[in-house]
Each structure stands twice: as C-alpha cells, then as structure tokens.
Amino acid sequence: MSSQFDFIIIGAGSSGCVIANKLSASGEYSVCLIEPGGKNNNALVKTPIATAVLMRLKAYNYCFESTAQTQQNNRTIYNPRGKGLGGSSAINAMLYTRGQKQDYDDWAALGNSGWSYDEVLPYFIETECQERIDDKYHGQQGALNVADSRSSHPVGADFIQSALNAGYPFNPDFNGEQQAGVGYYQVTQKNGQRHSAAAAFLSPIACRANLTVLTQCTVQKILMKNKTAYGVQYKSANSLLTITAAKEVILTAGAIHSPQLLMLSGIGAEDELTEHNIDVIHQLNGVGKNLQDHVDAIIVNKHRRENLISLQPKPFLNLIKQGYRYLKHHTGTFTTSVVETGGFISSNQQQSRPNLQWQFVTAAMDDHGRNIKMFFEQGISTHVCLLRPKSRGCIRLKANNIDTPPLIDGNMLSHKDDISDMVQAVKLTRQLLATPPLAKNNTAELLPGNKVTTDQQIEDFLRAKSNNIYHPVGTCKMGDDDLAVVDNTLKVIGINGLRVADASIMPTIVSANTNAPCIMIGAKAADLILADHTCK
To answer: Cα(398)–Cα(361) distance, rounded to whole angstroms?
Structure first.
C-alpha cells in the first residue's frame, strides 16, 4: 500500500462514504478512507429489525455514556454511535428525513453563505434514488435508495387515523413542500434490506484503483507542520503507522470523535489542551462546544392488538414466522425500521413551524430498548422529541488518547424553554393516544403512568426518564463567530489542508433525523474540495 495519497478521509460514516465516492470518481486523485471499525457487510447489519440488537453490540457501536447529567437526575445518558463502514447509518432506524427549509436558511443567515435551503436541496436530490416520489424535491438517479417500508403494521395505521381524528393533517412526504403533519416514514432500504451509506456509496466502487479503504485502523492524531495538515498517524493491530496527504485531510468522524481528534492533534481551547499535556498548535475555543441533540421522551401504553413486537409467546411465535417470510421474500416485520409512522407537529397552535417530532413504535420499550423486561409487555411506544432545543452541551477530553472515550455532556433540559416545550409535548402525545382508534385498544399507561398528571409531575418524569434520540451535532460548528471551528467551505479556521465535514459542523440542529443531512454535507463538501483542486 502507498504511504501517500492526495486525500485522506478520517471516518467512514455517512459523510465520509459520500466524499470518498465523489473524490475518487474521476480517477485523477488517490483517496484513502480510514475507519476504526469493520466492514459491516453481514446479515445482522443488512436486516432492518436488527437495529434493536445493534444498539447493544460493541462490535458495531461505540455505546458511549455521557457524564452524570445534573438536569436529568444525575443519570448518564446512552449515546450509541455506529462503528465500521457506514458509521451510524449501519445501525440506525433508517428514517429518511431532511428537516425544514428554515433550518438551512438559518445556517445561511448566521454567516454561512452557500448553505441556504435552495443551495443544499440539489445535494439531497443528487444523492437520492427515490422509489415512489417524482417531483422537484426528489431524485431518482442517486446512489442512496429511499423507499416506502415493506412492513406496515395495522397499529401504525391506527396511529395515523388517531392523529387525523385529533385534527392533524396527513402528509405523504415529510421531505416535500412542507414537513407538518403525520404519515409514513420513508427509509434508506433497498429490496427490503438496510441501505447504509457504505452500501450506497462504497460497495459499488470497491474496484476503483485510486480508492483505498482501511478498516480496523484507528487514527491517533492528525499530523501538522507550520499549521498545515499533511497526514495522519494511525494504529493497525499493534503497529503505529503514518500516511500523508498531498492535498487535504478531511475529518468525518462525527460529532463526538471529530472534536476529540482535533483536540488530540493540538487544535482547541488552550486550557483544555494543556490540562492533558497536549501541545497547542492552534487555539480554537469552539472545538467541542455547541453540542446539541434532540431530547426525547417515550409514552408507553399496554395495547390489545396482537402481533406487536413482543417477547410474549404468541407475538414471539409470529416473529419466527416473519423471519421465514423475510428470508424468502424480504418483506414483513423483519424489514421494519421499528419506527414506521410518525409526524411533525407544533407545541403551540400559534406556531405553524413544527418543533416536535413523533416516532411511533409497535412495541413497548424503555431505556433505548435496553430494558429487556419492557419487551415482555404487549404495548406501543410513542417517542416525542424537541426538534430545536435551546440547551447546549460540550465534548471534552478525558485523556490524551483516542482509545479513551471523551467526556460527553449533553446538558439537555438546561434551558427553561426546553422543559416547558417538552411538558407540552407529553400532553399532546397523551391527547393523541386518548383519541380513537388507538384509544379503544390502549388498556393502561406504563410510562409516565396514570398518577403523573400535573405539569410538575410531568417535569419530574422528564428529568427521570428523558433521553436523547441519537442526533448529536454542532461540536465543530460552521460560522464566523467566536465559537466557529470551520468556515463556510468547511476548512478548519487557521489551519491549511484540513476540513471537517460531518454532523459536527451544523451550527444549529436540523428539525429531523440527521442521517440524510449528513449525506448532503458530504456531497457538498466533496464539491467544495474538488473546486479548490481542479486545474491546480
């Protein structure tokens, strides 16, 4: 293997896979994509329902825990992040949602020219292979397959009908002209199997001679001289190796690892680096700051409908039958994203822009699905999350090495408006669940429980049980303010030859699941990079 490339990409997640594809497409440049995890090319990753298992397996998932959260009863909050080719797109629930027009217009208004909705929409279209919808918002020629679910449980239809009866509109496309309403989520699946970023953007180009993909290789730090990135030092098995980049190093390790690697490489706040005996190469106070995630609560009800996902004897027997159906036809329950239906609503009737998201699950679940006892209940779970929280957290170093997870302080529910919005979110969700046809089959509320009625009791429930919904962003924010880490071309401010291109660059969190936006960021980043090096 060559020790020098034109471009080195650190992290084979949703953004990194897209960038590797586009930079290597012409054959003009040599590209190395380096990833700590494995290839993720197996039945467990490909089978959609296995998301519930992948949430717990450290071979595919970093399984991070936050620091004790003072606003959430000093609990640690689980932070699953994907490991291996495809990153979190290899373990997520596969929902394809982009967010709202105003999300991206807000980015542009913050000083990030080129990132308005009209300017990023072409990248969503470019990367998408849409199976059902053919209009100006969607593409049919992209690498990422977007499809309707091949699993459609009747209780999901009940959720939608209850929402319609409660006065919410039906929306056939959450990524179209408007986001508001309820409906069926589309998923990143192809032929009933998970279509991760790796399956979409890497597998079809595996034979490209100018693309090298290294797995089971962990970057220890980015190498720099005279404030110019020229390569990386990485560990493979027990060997410490170096490769160099003639043009650029591109960091796509995600909102947790990207700031950690910058700090380990000497870029960050001076006090943070000196505390861990790291030489300060360039002071950037925003590295690791501005952490945002969607705070989430689950309302769980016992439910009479049969064949829900459960470990009770009859539903479990049905699951076995569904397994055969999946193996033979790639249809049925094993193709479920677990979240088939949901919607986007406003907590305030005077506000037309949705600030809450529903994700409806045909199973009783608790603690990210890690509470196995809950799967023995026959029930349904309704996630409700706050789309644009005002609380901000941070990523800090715990030790001077990449193998020690950083300190993750989400600081969720620290802003009073987030609490009041989430209290209202719980109330609205309960109103939905008390509306027929769901209401006639709900027998008891397991969470929060019927004794939780007042605003203060709901707040106590939120502090005791709320979690994130696995969408960390913002820790290497794009902008021109004091906390900016990258500029609007994603170049690290004050450093040559180094960019960051993943969820960490989002100045504010999008009003949606974050996988599709990360793929968009990767596609746009590749064009920015190519524009700088073409004909030079």
So the answer is: 36
